[in-house]
Prior knowledge:
Strands 8-7-6-5-2-1-9-10 form an 8-stranded mixed sheet, with helices on both faces. With about 300 residues, it is α/β, with parallel strands linked by helices. The chain is globular. Strand 9 (about 245-250) and strand 10 form a beta hairpin. It has one domain (about 5-300): TIM Barrel (Alpha-Beta Barrel). The protein starts with a helix and ends with a helix. The chain is built from 10 helices and 10 strands.
Amino acid sequence: MKLSSFAYLATFGVKTILFRQKKPILGTVIVTDKCNLHCKHCSVNNITAIVHPYSQIKKEMEQLYNMGVRILFFCGGETFLWEDGDKTLRDLVIEAKQMGFMIVNVVTNGTYPLDLPEADLILLSLDGDKEKHNDIRGDTYDLIMHNIANATSDNICFYMAVNQINKNTVKNVCRTARDTKNVKAVSFNFHTPYPDTKELELTVEDKQRICDDIKEMMKEDCPVFNLKSAFKYIIHNTFPTPCHQCVVIEDRKISVCGRCIHEDGLCEKCGYFFVAEYTLLFRGNLKIIFEMLTTYLKYI
């Protein structure tokens, strides 16, 4: 991370903590909900299957930037399906960098070639060992690992959504992240139970055991991009929601925190680790502040 970016983000954090500001710093642009997969845990793919045009995406990026957002995510659907004429996902990432966003990340299922060195992180969904991942996402594990091996940069971070199917494979994913070329880290979320996927919801006991597994893997020097200090809040859903410092824009509509905010009662069952981490950070939790500083400087 550049020193200027670090200084800007640190100043934002101090102002937010001291003055209880609700301005956003992290924004996500949904470039499409079209996806080539039909994962068992996903409730937001192929609802419209619309690929939003470049002109609209650019305006949405500008809108987020003018709101103060400086950490940008491109998300889907499957982001690598996005194109408009001769414009591709790479053009969006480059445009975002030129616009002034300090950190630009992309979320993908990893089934397309990973040639995107301009992104700070490529958050790639790996949902368990080969058996459990394929159970959730179809026969894609070998293709994904092939694409990782042939990636043009080492900016990949595994992004695992832990649910009832894959809850016993967290250690495997941690070790795979540690031992795989081009993979920088692994980041976890718990399954957020949309109405059509409630059967995948984890119990408190599940969450406690999973966090214990992650802590054990941290001791084995596995590169976990989550904050251990936030685990107790995530396990019991005692962190404040929604996170006003995070926004999502999809088809010109802005939502505070994430798309799940529009589902009644879902905030109380939020499984997103970053929501807990950011809300606790901007409430001035000293352990979270210190751990986030060291983690972000290490992996971004």
